Amino acid sequence: MQRIYEPQDLLEGEMLLGMLASEGVDAHLAGRHLLGAIGELPALGLLGLLVEDQDAEHARRLIDAYNAAAPLPGEEPDASPGILLC
């Protein structure tokens, strides 16, 4: 397995797991159970998306496309353009 991406947080990691699964890529989110120990561990580098070696390049391309995505025109909130409100 190869570590191909470090999500910013658990939410992004879980979302990327779902996106990769929908594209037929089996992935594992390493470090999710370490987040409760942030005071004891370094704050960065705990989370990592792992995929099988043969899926690594395809998964990287999918994640690059995710990172390059922009909101559709007209989908931005009027009060805060450029900020995604959930």
From TrEMBL:
DUF2007 domain location: 1-65
InterPro entries given in the database record: DUF2007 (IPR018551), N-reg_PII-like_a/b (IPR011322)
One Pfam family it belongs to: DUF2007
Protein name: DUF2007 domain-containing protein
Gene source species: Aquipseudomonas campi
